[in-house]
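Researcher: Here's a chain I'd like modeled. Treat it as a single chain, no partners, no ligands.
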Amino acid sequence: MFLPVSSIHRVIWTLAPPPRCRKAAKAAAVNHDRPALIVNDALYPEDYDTLKAILSELDEPVALHIIDDQSEVTLAELTGAKTDEEEDHDDHQMVANLRVDLDFTHLSCGRVVLCCGDTPAALGSSLSDAFIRQGLPGVIVASPKQRHLGLSVPSIMRDISRTYADVHGLYNPLKTTATHGGSSVPPHAHVSLMAVMDEANVPTVGGSYRQDASSLVVLDNLYTEDERMSIMRWLTGQGDQSSKRIPSDEDLPDPLKWDLTTSDYGDGVTSQQQWGLREHVVQNLAKDPPPAILAIQSRLINIYRDTHDICLMNATALSGDYMEPLELSSFVANAVEYGGHYDWHLDMDPSNLDPSSPWAMLHGCYFNREPNRPLFVTMLIYPQEDWPARFDAETLFLDPASAVGAFVRPKPYRVVLSDQDLTHRISAPSQLAERPRYSLVWKLVFLPKRQHQSHDNDHVDYNNIIKREWGEPIHLGKTIELQKRAG
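Model: Modeled as a single isolated chain. Structure tokens:
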């Protein structure tokens, strides 16, 4: 299906990508009878205006095709694409060697511009320069390859998006355990809390508005005592994984793994330092997680196997050249102490990304939970053996408009999931604690799976961490009038 330019409405970005994010199109390996630029319906009105202005200045007529991401149209139908060359085995081998093997059919086609024909392919950098002059973000410029001839145009765009995501490391699937039964959800695991808050109408990439709310989920008994001890031993640095010594919570963080860094970033009220894992430790944790971490990750994947693929967030893919670099990591560990001050903050919302970042170049800047876009999620555990209520140090979640919220007490075997745009903070331990309160945090990306059989799966929500079969969540901050207004 083709969409007229006049029918497409989008939210506009006002910053352009830096030169390092631009990619000039190479000479086309495919011949086209009818030269054209082909884009999908995920771009914005000014993008199409810029493309039309560029094409109007060319000596040779070049068509602009805007394709719906469910279209089955092929290059042969649009441009008469064909090739007389032998099959490019190196090209196929490059695709086979991609690090990330994920199904991209559930995501939008991305900000891809296909340059079909010698004249469009020659535009290359001038195409990107034109976007920059208009103050617009860049696009992924590519020429179709031989392997694309048998595919629909949206499939070609998804193939290019997949290659782009792999090159920039956008998706790092969670590692799992190979141990038999390690991915099985324990029989006594259960949902203790489901809550939604911060409800609002937000813009969509389609130019309309949708009802939106951030979610919070608390799962209990999702890991075992042996796994808890192993994680505490790993965090505190007391011996290796084979050590029989039971870790003592009273010990301060191991300075070989921890240093005093500012982890929470709020309104800048305080510059107080707090304990956090050193960067090389975070990198090792992502690269080679201990078995207990693998077990928790495997169970999380099992819980959401029908709705999401789950990846570690790559912080470098979220940063660009127009905003301050993001102080984000795939993992964050906290050892909070009495007397600490911790700001209200949110971890990340895709709408706040630098438009020049690799992530925004592919997916755009969108509000979390946008359909057919990756969902930003935080996961948190408390590996202490025991943490009495009088020790405080709860994690607090806030609905800013109503000034109400929820608190979650530290508890062993507990896993807390929240959307990354949910406002929250740590509360400091009480003086009675006389020891730090440890926690370990994952920054995750949930890739929603498309409904392959829509009539059978209408009950499945692909944009939410709260699963429908769990029941109705608590709505915090939602206003209900006590008395109807007169008249």
